[in-house]
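Quick question: what would this complex look like in 3D?
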Amino acid sequence: MAAISREEVAHLARLARIEMTDAELDHLASEMDLILESVSRVQGVAGEDIPPTSHAIAMHNVMRPDVVVPSLTPEESLSGAPAREENRFKVPQILGEE
Amino acid sequence: MSTPIISQTAAQMSAELVAGSVTAVELTNAHLDRIAAVDGDVHAFLHIDREGALAQANAVDASRKAGEKLHPLAGVPLALKDVLAQKGVPTTCGSKMLEGWRPPYDATVVTNLKKAGVVILGKTNMDEFAMGSSTENSAYGPTRNPWDLSRIPGGSGGGSSAALASFEAPLAIGTDTGGSIRQPAAVTGTVGVKPTYGAVSRYGLVAFSSSLDQAGPCARTVLDTAMLHEVIAGYDPKDSTSINAPVGKMVEAAKKLDIKGMKIGVVKELGGEGYQSGVTIRFNEALEALVSAGAEIVEVSAPSFEYALAAYYLIAPSEASSNLARFDSMRYGIRVGDDGSRSAEAVMNMTREVGFGKEVKRRIILGTYALSSGYYDAYYGSAQKIRTLIKRDYDAAFVKVDVLVSPTCPTTAFKIGEKSNDPVAMYLNDVCTIPVNLAGIGSMSLPCGLAPEDGLPVGFQIMSPAMKDELMYQVGGTLEAALQSSWGKPLYASAPELAVK
Amino acid sequence: MALNYDQALEKYEPTLGLEVHVELNTASKMFCGCATDFGALPNTQTCPVCLGLPGSLPVVNAKAIESSIRIGLALNCSIAPFSRFARKNYFYPDMPKNFQTSQYDEPICINGYLDVTIDTDEGLKVYRVDIERVHMEEDTGKSLHVGGATGRIHGAEHSLLDYNRAGIPLVEIVTRIIPGTDKYAPEVARAYVAELRDILRSLGVSDVKMEQGSLRCDANVSIAPRDSQTLGTRSETKNVNSLRSVERAVRGEIIRQANRLEAGERIIQETRHFQEESGETRSGRSKEQAEDYRYFPEPDLLPIVADPAWIEELRLALPEKPSVHRKKIQEAWGVPDKEMAAMVNAELLTTVEETVALGAEPTKARSWWLGEISRLANEKSVEPTSLIQPSEVAQIIALIASGELTDKLARQVVEGVINGEGDPRMVIEKRGLKVVSDDSALMVAIEAAIASQPETAERIRGGNIPAAGALIGAVMKATGGQADAAKVRELLLKHLGQG
């Protein structure tokens, strides 16, 4: 695996929404190299026929009935809000659209 | 002179409470006093809920006085790892990100504890978001090992293990994603159990790696651990991965003290070269004790275990990168840079930069990488396949033996700061504990002596098949009894006296 | 000069694909027990799970799974024997966990189709819309943008978030590229969404109210020069909140793209937002820097293994398909294809059915709803059903049949009902619109007419029956049109010895 560049780390930091300084990116890039070198051992160990395991204890169809249970009060829901206006969470202006 | 109450086991405290020789309030106060006296040095707690604890203790005393039927652990104090939500009580996960956050709800573990009348003293220190093996990654400063204050108490649950070893609490809750209950137990001479995945509800456990995380009981003895296990375990419809089956009889198993005819497998790949000599010596002594107790020791090979560490350091960061995305300053937690000029996006970026520590950011970036398009198959996908291989190794082993054993970690407690600049060396601490999490099985660490070279506790790991957690209690209880009779006293009683302030 | 739609179609061929999001009408949310009531006070239907509080965990709503499977079956899909949830990772303030729990490569239903009928120049034509997948996911919260002039996201000073909608179950239905629609792309798009909506309504799985957002359509449109073998770059138009808008959005987007290409510009792959007022689309987020959603299986949820027996049970219990139902109705009422299509396209079939069910004659019910009432609705730019109830229309038709109202009077009654003057009986009462059927009152008017036109009366007496028209007209005028003309004629002729 090719070494990971600072630009790649910067891209990952953007995806992860962490604003990093250049120094931090440099440092992380070199650390990532070391870590990736050691974790790359996983590659090619298991053959095509080996299925991936996402859940250690295999279960399926775990569901709940469609029954309404009491919500939190708005006071409780908003109790941790860094800012609020009436019963809504107040946040800075949103740039993107989706 | 009778043993001071705080040095007793939870079972003994329970007996005294039932006998009426001590009240829950007295017991709680004794522990609060102890915390006040020694926690300045140990720093096991991030938050002490004096008022809440005393209110709970009072309620237990009142119920007892009224003749109500109480749980055996009603009135016994406990230290709760700060990764579990407790309504109205600060819950930080050792992170600056959640400074000041008071959850509006209780984790199911907390609900179960409250129901049983267990008194929650406060929240214990941990590596930030449970990422670490030393508790040095806490945003609120490290916890120190009561056996040697210059050393780490293990991690991520170093606060819980240190609280037990320093007699600040007889019971504690930990969480274990790659060894965060067992490794701290090992390096502090205490007992810690990671139950089968799904045995204890994860509802209210702030997720690090959802498919690996499991809360579990910690104490100074196997029996106390078993008692606490039965309180916190059980089916919870709020956790989809919760196992819908009755909780096994852990206390009964811990009291059996009989392992005649049991087959115990020693995992070849978890030991030998690279393991501290004192660790190997004490581990082998414990094996002899098991043989004397009538067990048969068999060597078992688990060839895929050598890839476990690498798989873990892909799976856990990948899930973490997603689990920790919610910390964005919009709904709770700290908010940085909101001066009216910045966008929500910019504020998120700044908050996450400031709110997360180095190790957390390192793992988020690693996980983001492992999941990103073009790398998924090579990293995350390959790691999930390794998981299958490790499960198969366990399945094959458990056909031959009842339980598997190994040292809990390759070394005793290292010095604070010794490995903090070498993440790969730090990650190696978890080499023996990680395969268990990847396979979802249960595992216990209990003390098996002090390493001759440094006089520090050594941990012995017992791994039992999924949903057969009783087996590790049966073996652990027997081993503990055998070792204690050879030592003449429990290991924790040999811990050095802490300076009392 | 800018190309119009027909000119654009001469040079370019459009390609269409549609993604429809449907909010299921379950009582509780997808992954928690919070209620899903529309219009509740902000953040009153939230809990640790749908707020994404640290430590919270999702548990799947069984009814949502069942509804999704029923939708798949109604759309002729295969139900996956094994499907599961995945996390779609991206940041957005209205998304509590900063990942959406969705389905990725293992959706619950795949490979279905839906046939829609369009009225083309060559007559009615059926288009088969292939459905690629039906998958489950959760809705986001809602943001309110405060400050700035527009109330829109741009220029806002801050935003306010309400998470009541967060976690409401959504089903996303994705078509494959719909081939060969050519100039009918806008009509096909509309007909598909309309048909889909009718199916969802018949299943009872959703409120399917586009204006409330319980059914939302994203239209993917691209165009390519007629001689080209490749597909053009597509845009994805969101914010399409009515059937009419679906049609307008597709049409508008084809025109916009054609004009861009004409001007030598290229089409950018992006999200666009439909503007209800102008019928145009406005650029949203560019997708050229492709998001990397880092999908992976949701570790907090377990796979869904659909039991074949259960699927069969659900299949057998499906309601009659709207298309089958329509065929039955058409036969029963004897409606010609074109008129049936007109009724369906006008969204009035159900309404007419309701009116017929209340006793109205089908032809009459149809002509009232598609004629006078639609005309008035059009004038007011509202839906016909918002003006008057089927029961009121049925009552008016009954009054005509019994001779108590003439068609002309009935139109006044309709007008009165729409103006809020009450139900038809009350309007008749208030406006005094009763047909004059009292013979003596009519006779007074008839005699007066004869007296004023003695020559005409003489000609009728002489056998010139057609001359009666002038006198009947005079009587009708005198009675303010409230007389039954046939009755007047009968009485007049009898009076003049011709009865």
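Answer marked as accepted. Residues 400 and 415 of chain C are 15 Å apart (CA to CA).
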